[in-house]
Each structure stands twice: as C-alpha cells, then as structure tokens.
What we know:
Blueprint: H1 3-8, E1 11-17, E2 30-35, E3 40-45, H2 48-53, H3 57-68, E4 81-85, E5 101-106, E6 113-118, H4 122-128, E7 133-137, E8 144-149, E9 154-159, H5 167-178, E10 188-192, E11 205-211, E12 216-222, H6 227-233, E13 236-242, H7 256-273, H8 280-283, H9 289-294, H10 316-322, E14 343-348, E15 358-362, H11 366-373, H12 381-394, H13 398-413, H14 432-444, H15 447-452, H16 456-467, H17 471-477, E16 480-481, E17 484-485, H18 495-502, H19 516-521, H20 528-548, H21 553-556, H22 573-587, H23 593-613, H24 634-639, H25 641-652, H26 661-687, H27 697-703, H28 708-717
Parallel strand pairs: 2-7, 8-13
Antiparallel strand pairs: 1-9, 2-3, 4-5, 4-7, 5-6, 8-9, 10-11, 10-13, 11-12, 14-15, 16-17
Protein name: Aldehyde:ferredoxin oxidoreductase
Cofactor: [4Fe-4S] cluster; tungstopterin
Organism: Geosporobacter subterraneus DSM 17957
Amino acid sequence: MNVKEMLKAHKLLKEYKYDLGKLDKGYTNRTLYVNLTDQRIESKPVTDLMKDKFIGGKGFGLWYLWNAVTPETKWSDPENEIVISSGPIGGITQYPGSGKSLVVTISPLTGMPIDSNVGGYFGPLLKFSGWDALEVQGKADKDVIIYIDGNEGIVRIEEAPLEAVDGHLLGEQLTEMYAESEADKRNISVVTAGTAAEHTLIGLLNFTFYDVRRKVPRLKQAGRGGIGTVFRDKHIKALVVKFKGVKGDLNHPADISQINKAGIKLHKEIHRLDHVQNRMRQIGTANIIEVMDEYDLLPTHNYKYGSHPDTYKIASDVFIKKYITQGMADGCWYGCSLSCAKAADNFKLKTGPYKGHCVTIDGPEYENAAGLGSNCGIFDPEYILEANFYCDTYAVDTISFGTITAFIMECYENGILDKEKTGGLELNFGNAEAALELLHQMSRGEGFGKIAGLGIRRMKKIFTEEYGADPDFLQDIGMEQKGLEFSEYLPKESLAQQGGYGLTNKGPQHDEAWLIFMDMVNNQIPTFEDKAEALHYFPMFRTWFGLNGLCKLPWNDIAPESNSTSDEPAKIPEHVQNYVDIFNGVTGKNIDKEELIRQSERVYNFQRVFNIRMGYGKRTHDKIPYRSVGPVTVEEYESRKDRYDQQLKELIGYDPEGKTTEQKMKILRKYREEQYEKLIDAVYMRRGWTMDGIPTIEKLSSLGMDLPEVVEVVRRHL
C-alpha cells in the first residue's frame, strides 16, 4: 500500500490553527498542549518563573509533569504526560551538538520521572514552529498521529489506521507522506515507537532526521526508562513536525557574535584534533570499546568481568573497516562538525520479519556494542548490528535489553532458568541466536520475551516467587537500581563511579557522572571529599546540557591542546566558558560558570523532591547491587585474585594467606559496602541534603527553589 492510500484513510479528529509568532532570545514563550482523551489542543504560556528556575529542556518537562500528576499517578494513567522540549540554546546551527530534544514522563520501570536526551530534528523544528515544548496528556481510543505544520500554523490530531508501527518503516512512510518533494523531506521529523513498546516496559522513542546523502530517515533514540511504552499506551502512533526555513538566526539571539566566536573556535579544534583524540568522525562513541577492555571496564558476562580475549572481534576498527560508512558528514543536527551519528549502510538482515531486507543501521554506539555484545558474551559484529537494528525499529532500549539479557544468561547458567522455563531458548552466554529470538518475542508479545520485557526488578520477583531462586543472589547480580538497568560500564574499581550510578535521580545512567578515569585511572579524586565534590559538580554540569538542548559530546570528546595544563582539566574549562558565552549570546543574560551550576542545582534538587513526592528518592533507593561494587561469585574473585588479595592486605590490613576464597570475599564485601555508605554521607553533605537523601529547606531556599509546593513535600518527609 502506498502512502497516498494511507493518508486517505486518515480521519481528522481535531484541527487547531495558531499564529506563527516569533522567537525571542531562544524562547517562543508558549507551549503546545494536546489532550488525547478529549481531543483538546491549546497554547499555554511559558512564564518568567519557568525560564528563570527551569531554563528549558528537561526543566520544562519536569515542571509540566509535576503539575499534571499526583503522588498516586501510575505510568499508564491518562494524566501521565510525555513532554518534549529542547531549550533556549537548542536549534542554533553555529555550535556543534545543539539539536537535542529532552523527553520527560513517569517511567514504567521506575515509577518516577524519567528524562532522556535524544538527537534528530524534532526539538529544533518544534521550536521553530512556534513552541518551546510539546505536552501530551490523556489517551486516544485508537492510534493517532499528531501533526504540526510550523509554516502554516496548523496542528492536527489524525486517526491513522493503516501505517506500520515499527520505527524504520513508519519514519519512512510519514516522511514521504507529509513531504511535498525530495528536498522537502529534510524539513520533516517524526517521533515513533515500535511493536515491542506495546508488549514491554522498556520501549523507546525514535526521533528521525532525513539523511540527504543516504536518502533515508535516520533514527536517534530517547532510550531510557520506557518512554516508548507510555507513548504506545496512549495510542500515539507518531508525532510529526514540519518546518521549512532553518537558518542560523531563528532563535533571534541577543548577540549572535558570541555564538559565532565560540562555534568557530570549536569547529577548528574538531578539525585539528578529532582524528588523534577520539575519532568521533570515523566511528562515533564506539571508539572506546577496546579502551574499556584495556582498563578492565568493559562489562562482560553480566558485569562479572571487565575484559575478554575476544574483544578484538568487536573492536572499533572492525566496524570502521567493514561496516560503518566513512567520509560522510554524519551530524544529527545542522552544523555539528563532530559528526558522530555513524551508520552502517545496506546491511542485509538475517532474521526476523525483515529478513533479507537491506537497511541503514544507526551505530553501533559504544553502549550497544558493550551491552548487546560483550555483556552477553557475544563477540560477533554482525549480531550486534542486527540486534541494534531490531532494538531500534521495535523500540527496545538497547541498554536495558543488553543488561536484561546478560542477567537472564547468568540465571540460566546457574540453573535458575532452564529450557522449560524459557520456552526452549538456550540462553547461555554467547548464544546470539537465542538473544535475537528473545528480542523478536518482545516484538510479538509472546514467550519468555514477554517476561524479559518487564525488566530486571520485576524478573527478580518472578524468579524468586515462581522458580524458588535465592533472592539475595538475584539482588547481588541483578544490575538494576531504582528499577532502571545499568548502562554499560564496570564500576567495581571506581568508588566514584559507583556513586555516579547509585546517586542519580533517574537510575544508573552515566549521563549524570562518568568518573571512572578521574577516579580509577588518573587518581584525581582520592579522598571522600574529592569524590563528593566531583559527584556534585559533574552531575550538575551535565544536567545543564539537558536544560538547554545540548549534546555533551562536544564538551569532553574533543579537548583543546592547552587543556592538560589547565587548573581543572577534567572539566575542560575552555569549553565550559564556551557554554557560558553561547547561553549569554542567545538569552541576553550575563551568567558566569558558577551560575551555570546553580541553574542545574535548582532543577536537580527539584527532581529529587519530585522523586520523593512519588514515593522514591531517599537513601534506601540509592543502594546498588553488589555486582557493581565487588565480586559476587568465587569465579569472579579468583579471576582477579592477585588484585583482591593485595587490596585485602593494603587497604584493610587483612592477611589472605591460607584463607578460603569465601572468607576473603566476605571481608572484602564488608569493606567495600562500608566505603559506599561513607561516600553517600559525603555526597549528601556536599549536596545540602539530609543523611536520608532529602534536600533541606535551607538548601532549596539558597537556590531560590523554595516554591511552596516543593517545600510542602520536603516538610512532610523531614
């Protein structure tokens, strides 16, 4: 069926016309609100309070969500919202990495607010169409598309019965449907989920950008926390925005010269240095696969190990030489010369409903190679690419899928699961065929894939209650926290990174703090106070990207030549100043690097209180599984026996000579768990929180975040 026939089958449910308006200093000063239950479309003002205290991006999303839900709201309730916003800097074309969207909802996995940072054109085009954010609430009776035409000033809710659901097909269909010509396809961005989002709690959202060289809509993912599951539960088939006329001054910045100056400087650094630093233009984030292996940080066999003899089979050069197209400007927004959105072209699929199709695959990124590959003991680049494709089009978070599958494989090898329980799947480490079938089952909503799609937290309960598994063992090896699966770094030898995972607001995702090299390799933060300072600064600094519609990669995946001689090289201070300059250049404000951190602190503390309001967000929720701290099993300890024995002698004063491995493990565990608790104390103190993890009223007041409704929640829990 062609797209014209599909379009004819659309039923217009509601149309809303609006004045196009004009951006001023990065803001349109209004939000598009859509309620799918009563088919209501409205314009809501963006207030000065929102801009001053929440800035934009995920800050706006959290504020709208706070006002939409109650402490009793569940992810599947109609009042739950999906909010998409870029931020005041989002959409500028002069500075690399300025095309991000931030998505916020109540997570099916965690029950708390989740935020996810995603590329593609949707956020900037939404802003240029006249809206600082899109706020979607309610549930439709049947599958609908929300269509926004930013040149005509029209919003429509259309019933859409015939289009595909899977992301790569639906993205192509809707791009062709709403474009007037081949050239017009670049003016369209589509947000979709996929079939697995209907049957699992780990659904993601795909955001498209049209690749004019490959002539195909590419997919970028808002991956974490099950946002795509919420999307499909609301019967949203897609969001579509169309805007023609992108140019460098559409934000109407206060001083474009500041933006140009910072952008030119960074473009020159990327041109000079990328090929000798991180090779982002060659391979993207997959450049670190072999680096992580070398430093014993590559998660292998459900985070038991940090390296493997077969890692060379999935090293970055393998993908560069055989799979990833070279010589393309692979930016996922205009003007991004870092060009890290790499792709494998004309990849022929071997399994599943699209077997035999030749497709373009986004990536693999590092997380996909590590999670789908080494963590599951699978060192096959073609499996990684195929699983990567199917995760994307089915709308399955690759990080959660990799960590879930690795957990299942360890349970299988320990006899907790068998072929009878898994419906015939032999889920040993290394079984690529079984892993792919598990993924296809998630798409179909059947078999053991349906259980796996519930996530590790719920599987631990099922395996204990129905299969008689030891709950303590499952707690130790189940790499989830707050309900969210860990991303793909092994933090056992970095106490700071354990905190970087455990002390997050949304769960163990490295976008708040990636401190492994500072802590473990470079020994830059040796004391608890040093670690606490790093776990204050870096989460706040990284939060700032999500308030402004920015990607973090241009900050620290390229560094100026002089950086090593700066006072604080881990912060990349020249680049920090760049961000101060472009924020001031867009908004006309006059912040400095200290106020930049305070902007993030306001939102970060607000999100912590939001978690507490939803029944989470205290010290007990910041505990982490012991597998992320130290060796759970005898084989783990003995794989690094010399290291652990040395630590027992030097750090604890315990003589391991003549002791059994179990005795040594017990002593080491006590020490490491105590260290983590001391770290929590130091971080809470530095952040201005109580020892139960609650922001104090004094802290909120010092930030100007002592809003009455926020203080009320804190008072109840203090």
